[in-house]
Write a structure and sequence with these properties.
It is built from 21 helices and 27 strands.
Length: 597
């Protein structure tokens, strides 16, 4: 029997063929992709791979300083850091104990670390540096977050200690600049505050934010699997642009003295609060603007408590009589020695009755005497021929009822009722400082106008902006002739009699001629009744060459009711300090206008 040779089935050959063919096709596809990515499109592929490893972080801009007129820093930016833990990396952390062999690349000694690993080991190493409890740090290190904040406002010195722990892939730091106020008690609510994003939220910080803020930069770099920077990898840096510094007209020394005097006066008088302003007569610059017991700059209170000196409005009371007297002189309704017989009360044609603060018989007073004695009745007698429209224009020209232009956030414009809406009583009371509302700076600014030959200069608190070596001063303040030079000069000399003959004479500064006016205005309390008062004294001096206007206001002084007695002593303290600080020589001459006839 002859055997036939074994033959492989054709089906087997076909399977082998298709398997080989499939392998060749798949290999070809893989090879083509490799050629595409590594040869033809190599640069694009590498760029995409690199971009997937790029991390970008913000470089915060340093906020500009705020300095006083002498360059003393009132607000600055200091370097602070936020320390965070990568919880994912902390979970697998295996510490390296420091020995002679591992020195320089270890995490701590065996006594500190023990046999702990993971979040517990991280906590034991980091907690002592941050002066925190181990359990507290361990809680921050446990979880699945890539960014768990452990502590904010960490100083550079502490950050350097953290860097020496060799935990860069577990612990990170982010530069978070912090605003600092070297003497935060100086003009706290004028300097203001910044928010968590380091943007101005109140005071000068808010007012000048566009200059102070600067512009953030950024850094982009290649990172490894654990987020660490690859030393030889791609790095791109866009530097931050620091903010500009802002120079104020405030004088830290003057502000301190004013604050001390104002606070003490508030205590002595058991007042609800006080306000004070010091303004240069010839320039309009504000050397000091203070609220009693001012909040510390940068605090939540400073961020929410606007300065009362610009925000609170009140009837000026008898200080408003200076506006009337200046108007009477300007338009020749009277002169300083015009004569009047003044009773303690007067009834106008409509039957409205007006009274002086104290009862007295008929007094023979000059216009100067009416101002010195602060007579409501005398002021009305001298004003009877003045039309309502002109009375209104005097108030508006004085700067009442509109912003001073100083620019501080929260400033109130005050209130002047249009003369068309006046009733028979209002048309009279506006002549002695009632039925009109002003803030402390508005009232101060008009007195400065009297001292500067009738020119009202827009109050300024900003001198300019410093950018490196370049100083850009603010535009010159606006000026307006609100009273003629002759009328202003006579008004100032008449105001000297207030100081020499009125209740404030006890606070005359020996050797110096001062001009001023007291005010004791009624205010509405929470019930709407006129049970509260604002006591004030605003003075200009020295008379022969006016340098400063100093104003002092107290709400509800309980020890001394009248403005002369409540605010007068504080005015004297402040003005005496200014005369001494700037070496002003003593005055010559004396008050020239008689008060009686």
């Amino acid at each position: 029997m002859v055997r036939r040779p074994f033959k492989t089935k054709k089906v087997f050959n076909k399977r082998l063929f298709y398997c080989v063919l499939g392998f060749i096709i798949i290999s070809g596809l893989i090879a083509s992709q490799l050629i595409w990515y590594q040869v033809i499109n190599a640069q694009s592929t590498a760029a995409k791979a690199r971009n997937s490893r790029i991390r970008t972080e913000t470089i915060p801009a340093a906020r500009g300083d705020i300095v006083d007129t002498n360059g003393i820093i009132l607000a600055t930016t200091v370097q602070r850091y936020t320390v965070y833990i990568d919880q994912i990396s902390a979970a697998s952390f295996m510490p390296v104990v420091c020995t002679k062999l591992s020195s320089g690349n270890c995490n701590g000694d065996s006594k500190l670390i023990g046999d702990s690993t993971g979040p517990e080991a991280v906590a034991k190493i980091l907690a002592p540096v941050l002066k925190l409890k181990v359990d507290e740090v361990k809680a921050k290190a446990t979880g699945k977050l890539g960014y768990s904040v452990v502590q904010k406002n960490v100083t550079p010195e502490v950050v350097r200690k953290i860097q020496n722990l060799n935990l860069s892939y577990v612990i990170g730091t982010v530069l978070t600049p912090k605003r600092a106020y070297p003497d935060g008690s100086i003009a706290g609510n004028i300097i203001g505050a910044v928010n968590d994003a380091q943007k101005g939220s109140a005071g000068i910080e808010q007012m000048m934010d566009s200059s102070l803020a600067g512009k953030d930069g950024e850094i982009s770099y290649e990172s490894g699997l654990l987020g660490q920077e690859i030393p030889t990898g791609y790095v791109s840096v866009k530097d931050a642009t620091s903010g500009k510094s802002v120079k104020l007209t405030l004088d830290q020394d003057v502000q301190y003295q004013v604050q001390q005097a104002l606070d003490q006066g508030c205590k002595d008088n058991s007042a609800d609060y006080g306000m004070a302003v010091v303004q240069e007569v010839k320039t309009g610059k504000i050397l000091s603007i203070a609220d009693s017991f001012s909040p510390t700059a940068g605090t939540d209170e400073a961020a929410t408590k606007v300065s009362r000196a610009v925000a609170d409005i009140f009837e000026p009371g008898s200080t408003g009589k200076v506006v009337t007297v200046a108007g009477l002189l300007e338009h020749n309704y009277a002169n300083p020695l015009s004569q009047y017989e003044v009773s303690d009360h007067w009834i106008d044609g409509s039957g409205q009755k007006f009274q002086d603060a104290e009862s007295h018989g008929v007094e023979r007073l000059t216009l100067t005497g009416i101002l010195a004695n602060s007579s409501n009745v005398g002021t009305l007698l001298a004003s009877q021929s003045v039309p309502d429209k002109q009375r209104y224009e005097w108030l508006v020209n004085a700067g009442f009822g509109k912003s001073t232009g100083v620019g501080l956030p929260g400033e109130s414009s005050g209130l002047v009722i249009p003369y068309q809406d006046w009733d028979s009583r209002t048309r009279q009371t506006v002549m002695f400082g009632q039925a009109v509302a002003v803030n402390a700076l508005q009232a101060t600014s008009f007195f400065s106008a009297i001292g500067s030959n009738g020119v009202r200069i827009t109050p300024t608190i900003i001198e300019g902006v410093q950018d490196g070596e370049n100083f850009d001063p603010v535009d010159a303040p606006k000026k307006k002739q609100v009273v003629s030079k002759q009328a202003a000069k006579k008004t100032l000399e008449m105001m000297e009699s207030v100081v020499t003959e009125g209740m404030v004479r006890n606070y005359v500064i020996p050797g110096y001629r001062m001009a001023g006016k007291t005010g004791t205005a009624q205010l509405a309390d929470s019930s709407g009744k006129l049970n509260d008062i604002m006591a004030s004294f605003i003075g200009v001096g020295p008379v022969q060459d006016p340098r400063w206007t100093v104003s002092v206001f107290y709400k509800n002084p309980r020890t001394e009711y009248f403005g002369a007695l409540a605010a007068g002593p504080v005015f004297k303290k402040i003005m005496t300090f200014l005369l001494s600080k700037y070496g002003v020589p003593p005055s010559s001459g004396e008050a020239k206008y008689a008060t009686t006839w």
